[in-house]
Every structure is written in C-alpha cells, then in structure tokens.
Amino acid sequence: MNLLANVDSAGSALTSWTPLYVLLGAFTAILIGLFLFGRSGNTSSKTAQFLLRIPDGLERIVHIPGWAAATIGMALFGLFVAGQAFYNDVAWHVALGRDKNLFTAPHTGIVIGLGLILMSGVVGVLLASLQRVNTALRWKAVRVPWSTLPLLALGGAAVTGFPLDELWHRAYGVDVTMWSPTHMLMILGAAFVGVAAWLVLADAGVKPHDSRWSMGVHVVAAWLTLLGLVAPLGEFSFGVPQFQQIFHPLILAIACAFAFVAVRLVLGRGWAIGIALANIITSTNLLNGGEKSPISTKVVGLYLTAAIAVEVVAFVIGTENRLRFAIASGVGVATLGLAGEYWWNHANSYQPWNSNLFPDAFFLCLVAGIAAAVLATAFARSAGAQDTARSLPGPLIAVAGFVLLVTLVVPMSRHTGDVTAEVTVGQRVAGFANVEVQLTPPDAAKDARWFQVTAWQGGGLELANMKELSAGRYVTEKRVPVSGRWKSLLRLHRGGELMTVPVFLPADTEINKGEISAVDRTMKFRPETSYLLREQHSGNNTLKNGVYGLLLGVMALWIASFSLAVAKISPKGPRVPPTASPLRQAKPVAA
C-alpha cells in the first residue's frame, strides 16, 4: 500500500499552493457576495454599517442571527482550511520526512486556518457588540457571548502552538509524531471547534427544528464534534502509530459516547444513525478520493454500531432519566459499539485489532464511555436538548470529567521488554527484500498487539505484517524497502511495551547519523523512539518543562471556558429570538 503512489520525489502534490489559493479565493468571493446581498442595518456609524452587511447577508439566507452565523461560518471554514493543510503536512512527513522550509504550503494553510478559528471568536464579540446582543458578560459597549470564550481559547492556543513548534524543533530536533505537546496544542485547538460551534448555536437561541438551515448547521456541528474528538487517532489512520494501540478503541468509545448521546438528546430520534451513515459515505469515498488519490489513509472507525447502540438505548429506556440513559449508552458503546469497530478494524486497519486487545481495553472503554456520556448530557442541555428532563448534579459532572481524564492518562506509560531479535535480510529485488527474524524468547510475539516492519519517509509508506513460520520465527508477508532514503524498522507492540530493531536506516549528514545497513544482525529490542524519532535529540529541560506546563495550563483553560459556557448558556429559550433580529432593531452605535 503506497501512501504517495503518484507523488514525485519533490512532493509537489503535497506542497502545492493551489488548494490554498482556491479555498481563500472561494472565501473572498463568498464574503463579497454576502456584502453585496446584505444591508447595513440601523446605525449611524459608517464602520458599523460596513461590517454589518456580511452578517446581515448571512442572516437573510440562513435565518440564523447574523453574529452567530458569521462566527460559525468563519470557524468552520478555518477548520476546513487547517484540516486540509494538516492532512497534507502529515502525509509529507510520513512519506518524505523533514521539510526544508518553515512556511510550506501545508504549514501556511495550517496557520491561516487556525488564525481564522481565533478570528471567529473575535468576530463573534465584535458583531455581538455592534448588534447590541443581550449578553450577561459585557464591558461598556463590548458584548461577549459566552460561546465565544471557548473559540477564543481554542484559537489562541492553536495559533500559539505554531511558533512554539518551531522553537521546539530547533531545541530538540524534528519529532515526527502527532502527539508532541506543540502539535497537540494545534490539533486539539482545532478539534473542539465543532463543540464550540454547537454552543454558539445554542447561545443564539437557534433550535434544530427552527428551519432546515438550523437543522443543517446543527447536524454539521454534531458531525464535526464527532470527527474532532477522534482527530488524535490520525496516527493510526496514517499507519504510523507511536502510542499504545489501546488508545484506538478508547478514543473511539469516548468520541462515540459523547457525540451520539448529545446528538440523540439535541437532534432527536434517528439522527445519530444518520450522522454515522453520512460519515461512512464521506470518509470512504469523498475524503479519500477513491483509488486514484495520491494519499491513502485508513478510516479509523465506522461509528455505526455505536450510534445504533445509543438509539436502541433511547428507544428501550427513554432519555428522561439522564443518568440512566448515560450509563446505558456508555455500556452500549463499549460493547455493541466496539464490537462493530473490532469487525471493521480487524479487517481494514493498518494495525489490525486482535482479540488480545480487549482484556485491557474493555474496562477502560467502559468507564470512559460512561463518563463521556454523562458529560454529554450536561452539554446537550445547553446545546438545545428538550428541557423536560432533570439535569445531573454538578459534582457528578465534575467527577465524570476527572474519571475521563484518568482513563486517558493510564495508557500513557511505555517501556521495553527483554526480547532479542536475530534478523536475516533476504535477497534484494529492486531495493526490496523479505526480512526473517528469530525471537528470543520464542513466545515474545505470541500475545503482541501487532508485529510489523514499518518502512517510511522514502517516498511513501510500506507496512508488512510478520507471519509466523515456526516457534519464534517470523517472516514479512511481502518484501520491504532496504535501500535508498527509506527508514525500515521491525516494530513490536505488546501493550505498554513499544520496541523496535532497525532493518535499514540511511545516512543522515544533517543530524550526523551514519547508515545502518540492511545486513543480518542480532540485537535486543530498544525503545522505538530511538529509531522512529531519529532526528530527535536532548536539549534544555527548562523549555521542555515550560511547554508541557503550558499544555496543561491551556487544557485547564479549555475545560474552564467550555464549562463556563455550558453552565451559563440558558437551556430555557433563545437569548436572541431569531424572529427579532438585533441587526434590524439595533440602536445607533457611536463611531
């Protein structure tokens, strides 16, 4: 399976500026069209008249309060730009390794997209102030909707992550992993935009059944909430995971339990299944681009059985008792939901799921699924759920959040087992060869989560599972690259034991590393970061501790901003009735 079958050695298909030009051109055209279609509103300020034309145009089309429509539109467009660029950037690093310049097309797209997410929060405050929206949080003429706080926190942290990432790489080398602290600032800052957009709708009093447009925007926000929550699974999607496989079902359980419980409570019957089906269609066809796409990734989850589980629970026991519904839904996602994901990932994942994954995964997924479902009930109450059910106590919500964080921390530990590999490289054919290995002890890979040769950064990605020939003796299922620019590693994952033996690594003069030739060798497995993150080096611990501390602080800020927004947004009715637009009834604003 070639990740970049149609990409030349320069990586032009991945670093092309054309997609960014097209997206920004379309964005500009839409803004011009909305400006021409909109009206300036009742205000004496020429600046305000100019700025209010775009949200008025949006409101006249979608019948959603202008400040909210503009905020959501900019946030989601920024998410799309950043997501498209991020996809190409990860593909570049997986297939071709380091890039030479900071402002490549993917990097520029990421910065612009994250900047638009930050600006969406600013625009929300600006337009709400110009329209004199009735907000509880205000300072003089500045009106701050509660829902803009998460967007400002997400966008601010994500944008900050980009210069910090460059500083991090200069200090510690290039770590080609999605889960470094600076990368997570950017990834998670974008990943929760769908959740924030859903809150903006609620803050503006937009109910799902107000109109077709209202339902459509709610559905998009719900879908992006699901996709955002599984964004960290990109390492599994691209086929080069660097953390325990248990994170794959764990994050799926959290995402499905939270998203589908919220969808069922806010959108109503059947929508969880509808969103899951729509995601299957888009992810398996549109987003991957079919067989001719130069980029090939694996769909990390189908989500359908989890959606069915939540819908069945709602049908059987109802949703009025929120705690009972949350517990039953969490159990359903961790059982029926993950059973479906096992079927899918056992057959289609780059690192297929095996039955030995579940003794460890089941309990964590069960606890995490229930905790996520409990949090979803609180979120749904603010996002537009019917206010007939009694809300859960605040302390219970806090406990659920703490438990959820614990389930994510538990699998973080990693170590190396006492295993020796006797590697034999077979006859080369066009730079490819089969690799045989004798393990000591012979049963070292018997209960492994996965055992593969990974070859990457040589122009594509090649993965080969190890087939057992006899006790402790394995061979690659196909020939793997052992020359050129390829980096080929024998990787063994056994729960928290993540280890590797090099097969072939080219010389790299930029980091003063010599070639590790593809020859027969006997050696102990080492921590896989020793070779997988070959460019990484030690540095000043002060910066490292500071960045990790910043990440923890930012996560605390995100939790606080979302918690405050959820708590403050009233579930009892719209803040600004859609039929009484503040744009058309605004008082004059001084210039």
Tell me the layout of helices and strands.
Elements (H helix, E strand, L loop, with lengths): L11 H4 L2 H20 L8 H17 L3 H31 L8 H26 L7 E2 L2 E2 L4 H25 L8 H11 L1 H11 L8 H18 L4 H5 L8 H20 L4 H16 L17 H14 L4 H27 L9 H26 L10 H16 L10 E6 L6 E2 L1 E6 L9 E7 L4 E10 L2 E4 L3 E2 L5 E8 L2 E8 L16 E4 L1 E2 L1 H4 L8 H28 L13 H4 L6
Antiparallel strand pairs: 1-2, 3-5, 3-12, 4-9, 5-8, 6-7, 6-10, 7-8, 10-11, 11-13
Which runs of at least 5 residues are low in confidence (pLDDT < 50)? 1-11, 286-294, 572-591
What structural class is derived from the secondary structure elements? Answer: alpha+beta
Judging from the principal axes of the Cα atoms, what is the shape?
A: globular
Strand order in space, largest sheet: 12-3-5-8-7-6-10-11-13
Mean pLDDT: 86
Question: Which percent range describes the beta-strand content?
Answer: 5-15%
* Biggest sheet descriptor: 9 strands, antiparallel
**Whole-number radius of gyration?**
25 Å
Whole-number count of domains = 3
Distance between the first and last residues' Cα: 61 Å
The proportion of residues forming helix, as a percent range, comes to: 40-55%
The total count of strands amounts to: 13
Describe this structure in words.
The protein has 19 helices and 13 strands. The chain is of the alpha+beta class and 591 residues long. The protein folds into three domains: 248 residues, no CATH class; 170 residues, no CATH class; 105 residues, Immunoglobulin-like (Sandwich). The protein has a nine-stranded antiparallel sheet. A two-stranded antiparallel sheet has the order 1-2. Helix 6 runs antiparallel to helix 7. The protein is globular, with a radius of gyration of 25 Å.
